[in-house]
Automatic annotation (TrEMBL):
Xref: Pfam families: UDPGT
Gene Ontology MF annotations: hexosyltransferase activity; UDP-glycosyltransferase activity
The name this protein goes by in its record: Glycosyl transferase
Keywords per UniProt: Transferase
Spans through the membrane: none
Homology family: Belongs to the UDP-glycosyltransferase family.
Lineage top rank: taxon: Bacteria
Key word RNA-binding present: no
Record GO biological process: antibiotic biosynthetic process
Organism: Allosaccharopolyspora coralli
Length: 393
């Protein structure tokens, strides 16, 4: 029986990209997917086979990386979710009351998606691109400092506003500090072995691992020196305005045995970085999957998508996290022996040593190879589509 699935996610690559292979697999099986997100990513979800539903959401602004999350900053993040919900929910209700879905699959940050599922009285499915949380394992302990003030007036105020907003629609959504309570089905785009406290998660959670779908077939890249070890460097798509870091990489790896590919993003022009060493290639964008197929080490911000892509390809990580979520990922990488985190006061010499050491560490390479096999065995988009079909059977 063919079904109609409504996906809802903020227009951020880190939240939308992990779901695209699932969309492709569902549509390949004859199901229909309507994907609601901001205008910036409508072409992306439509290319995966979904029907785009444009929401009045803007992509997260490019900004400098933050340090520890304060109560004020957390309140601002929650207010952004509430603002998106207030502007998006009327569009969602109009669209999907007229075209009822069999289930609503909502990103962990999409309050409007969770409200839509309750309003329509259809099954709710959570889309989790990073670590999952449950009644026994709290992400707060991983992301927030011990000094965090849970009773801060700004948090009390925004939680009250969220409760009043959901109540105004006659809904019973439980408002709590991020993340939201588990849904009836939770699709987690990381392998169970990478999940912290994995033993506390029950049948409601399906750990799918990463999947790449048509993106894997569409990307290609060849290094200039096929015989040289390849170091790939990227700080992701949000916190990459770091010209001083890229110049430090030039200093660290110029005239080294490493062939280096550096992705600098849209905020930095390669021509503004000064003289580029002959063994370094700088672009604003590299086809990351194709590069990782050939890389020996990934010097990464430790975003979860990049971390999963690195582990899928069996590439050890040297991490330079830019924000608390990435810090948690970097800690997990070290805990599992999959790489090392550089110190905050890193200089060119230390950076070079970390990369050289990780590249030569047989224990790390063995751990990464084992995790690669685990990641590839999780099931990816096929397992996700199976779980969705079974939940509606």
């Amino acid at each position: 029986m063919h079904r109609h699935f409504a996906f809802v996610a903020p227009p951020a690559h880190g939240h939308v990209n992990p779901t695209l292979p699932l969309v492709e697999e569902l549509t390949r099986r004859g199901h229909r997917v309507s994907y609601a997100t901001g205008a910036a990513l409508i072409p992306t979800v439509e290319a995966a086979g979904a029907t785009g539903v444009t929401l009045p959401m803007e992509p997260p602004p490019g900004r400098s990386a933050a340090g520890q999350i304060s109560a004020e900053h957390f309140a601002e993040m929650m207010r952004k979710q509430l603002t998106d919900a207030r502007t998006s929910l009327p569009t969602l209700l109009t669209q999907f009351t007229a075209d009822l879905p069999d289930a609503v699959c909502a990103d962990m940050l999409a309050l409007a998606g969770r409200m839509l599922a309750e309003s329509l009285d259809v099954p709710d499915v959570a889309l989790l691109p990073s670590f999952a949380a449950n009644e026994r394992f709290s992400l707060h302990e991983q992301l927030l400092p011990t000094s965090f003030d849970f009773q801060h007036p700004a948090l009390t105020e925004i939680l009250g506003e969220m409760r009043r907003f959901t109540a105004s629609y006659g809904l019973n959504q439980t408002q709590q500090m991020f993340p939201p309570p588990p849904a009836s089905l939770n699709l987690v785009f990381i392998p169970e072995r990478f999940q912290i406290a994995a033993e506390t998660f029950d049948h409601r959670f399906r750990f799918l691992g990463p999947a790449f779908g048509s993106r894997r077939r569409s990307e290609s890249w060849q290094p200039a020196e096929a015989e040289s070890p390849l170091l790939y460097i990227s700080l992701g798509t949000l916190f990459n305005d770091r010209p001083e870091f890229y110049r430090m990489c030039f200093e660290a790896f110029a005239d080294s045995p490493w062939q280096v590919a550096i992705s600098v993003g849209q905020s930095v022009a390669p021509s503004d970085l000064g003289e580029i060493p002959t063994n370094v290639e700088v672009r604003q964008y590299f086809p990351q999957l194709a590069v990782l197929e050939r890389a020996s080490v990934f010097l990464s911000h430790a975003g979860m998508n990049s971390t999963m892509e690195s582990l899928y390809h069996g590439v050890p990580l040297v991490t330079v996290p830019q924000m608390p979520e990435q810090e948690a990922n970097a800690r997990r990488v070290e805990e599992l022996g999959l790489g090392r985190r550089v110190p905050d006061d890193v200089d060119a010499g230390v950076l070079r040593k970390f990369v050289d050491d990780v590249g030569a560490d047989e224990h790390i390479r063995s751990s990464v190879a084992a995790m690669r096999d685990t990641v590839r065995a999780q099931g990816g988009a096929v397992a996700g589509a199976d779980a969705l079909e079974t939940s509606l059977a």
